[in-house]
Structure formats: structure tokens, C-alpha cells
Amino acid sequence: MSADELLARPAGETTAVSPDDAQLKAVLEAIVYVTEEPLSAIQIADALGEPRERVETLLEMLVAEFDRPEHGVAMREVAGGYKMATKAEHHERVRAFIKSLRAPAKLSLPALETLAVIAYKQPVTAPEILEIRGVQGAGVLKTLLDRKLIATAGRKNVIGKPMLYKTTKEFMIQFGLKDLSELPTLKEFEEIKRLAMGDESEPLAESASSAAASSGASSEPSAEPKSPEEDSSDES
User: Among 82, 100, 178, 222, which has the highest number of CB atoms less than 10 A from its own CB?
Assistant: First the structure.
């Protein structure tokens, strides 16, 4: 059965597979579960010595199975590969549970603002980020580089040849994006900021709005930029 035929089946309908396919499907589930980096069907097929079409079909079967409401996790394509993650409808309860275990790693507001600028304007230089945000952010760039959320992308061919920055595969993994076309709207990015900062009342800073607006995203009025003193922090 092809992947197209599988996807055309009614939701919740069980697909019969041969014992060999069932065993391979179980192996694929285990591989995706234990691997931190998203793996493509080609990578898995080559590693297992299996036909790509067979692996793709079985992976789509797993995607469909985990999409059923009785499963708390989903398997989906992220950053060009397959990865397991908790379902969106369970995020709040899972997040509350995790918070009860340990303090979550947080990005500072300046880091989130800078990340938004890079995401929507990439590749972008530090002076261009400064022009949008209105404050210096060398320490923030270092924080984002250390966390592998951004990477250098060569130098811009202008006077001084400033370094260009872009988002990374790790950024797509952390934000659950299949590719950059799935970048969140400003409203969604604002919610991401609120969750990361643990503040349900503070709107996203103006610099993120400016970055996305220039890239065609819509947004609502937001707060004034932070001061240079606040931006100098390497808080994480």
C-alpha cells in the first residue's frame, strides 16, 4: 500500500500489514523515539538497508496511528525528518508537570526579540539587528550562538563586511517547524515568548513586530523596546 492510499483511508481505520512490515514498523517507531535529531526516511532506509518506499509508507502509517486521540505523543515531520513530540492539546498539563520537577531553561526577552528579528529577516547582520531593535545586542547574539539557535552565514559584501546570521536546524527543532515557511505569525510568536518568559501579561517587544511586519507577517501594537542596560544581559 502506498503512502497516498494510506492517507486516503478514513481516520482511525486500522491498516493490516504483513508480519515483516509490522516488525519493521516497530523498529522504525523505536528509532524515531530514541533519536534526538529528526531522521529522514532516506537516512533510515539507508541505515537499515530497506527500500525507501517501504520505509516511507511505514513511517506514514506510524504518523497516522499516533495522530489518533488515544496517543499523547505524535510523530511528525520536523526539519526534514521524523520526530516524536507531545501533542499540542496536552502541552499545558505536560508543561505544568515539568515545571513541578525543575526550573525550565529560559531565554531572556532581548534574546527572544533578537531571535525573532533573525528568523524573519535572515540572513541579517548585527548592525541591521541594531537598526531594527534600537539597542546593542552582542551578548544576546553570543547566547543564541551558544544555544545553537543561530549560526553565522558568511559576511555581507558591504563596507566592513559584517557577519551575517541565520537560524539553524536546532531552531526549527525547538520551535517544531518543518521548514522556514512554517514560521509562526507575530501572535503565535508572542505566545511563545510568554510561555518562555513565564509571563502571561507582557506583549512581545516592538522589535519583533518590526522584523515580521517587514517580512509580510501581521501583528498587533506591542511594547516599547528595552533599554541598552536590559539588553546587555546574557541571561538564559
Answer: 82
